[in-house]
Amino acid sequence: MGSSKLKDIGEGIVGAAAITVIVIMPILRSRYAKWGSTDAEVQRSLPGDDLVPHLKGGYTHAVTILASADKVWPWLVQIGQGRGGFYSYDWLENLAGCDIHSMDTIMPELQYLEIGDSVPMHPKMGSPYKVNSIEAGRALVLLLRDKTQVGSWVFFLEELDEWTTRLVSRSRNDWNRSLTNALVFGIFGPISLVMDRKMLLGIKQRAEAATSN
User: Fold this and answer.
1) 175: domain CATH number?
2) What angle do the packed helices 179-212 and 69-77 form, to 10 degrees?
3) What is the DSSP string of 2-29?
4) Vertex 124 angle, CA 113 and 72, to 5°
5) Where are the beta strands (DSSP E) in the chain?
6) Which of 12, 14, 16, 212 has the most other CB atoms within 10 Å of its CB?
7) How many domains does the chain have?
8) What mean pLDDT is predicted for residues 179-205?
9) CA–CA separation, 93 and 195 (whole Å)
10) Where residue 12 falls among pLDDT bands split at 50, 70, 90?
11) Can you give the residue range of the structural domain that contains 23?
């Protein structure tokens, strides 16, 4: 087994441990729901907020990346299963059959997204998220909507200067009150908190490495 595979497994175990802790200690969810973000960023209105007017759950995460926004944007555009991956815990995602392989390079053929395009999460479960709006170099708004739930997932870039960018990831969700949804969101909520945090760190690592080369 190669060192890269061992690293993926090791990181996956750490991620699984973090998810377990949040599940059994719900008090930590509020902290993870604001990971990396300032109070101003949590309270700030972002594109896509209006898509989920009746909020039941979500998070606002953020990370500072030592790269310009135009260097970060290509990593966002190529996200998705069968695309560039999610730069998170691939090993954990693949335990659920997601077949995720996060790229360490920018793929030119994956740099095109339009409104209505799907961003797949799983090879056999359809593509629940679709591009609702997109502003190149600034904002990518994904929307999930079906009979039982509506959710938005927003990536927002704010360039602090020509070498520094804040990347904000926001998820907002509303769902029908049912036992099934209570179980799904009770489990999926902690998972998404941990996976999204790792995703932002994965993008930061890749963008900064590409900038330094």
Assistant:
1) 3.30.530.20
2) 130
3) -HHHHHHHHHHHHHHHHHHHHHH-GGGH
4) 30
5) 57-65, 118-119, 129-135, 139-145, 149-161, 164-175
6) 12
7) 1
8) 78
9) 9
10) very low
11) 3-212
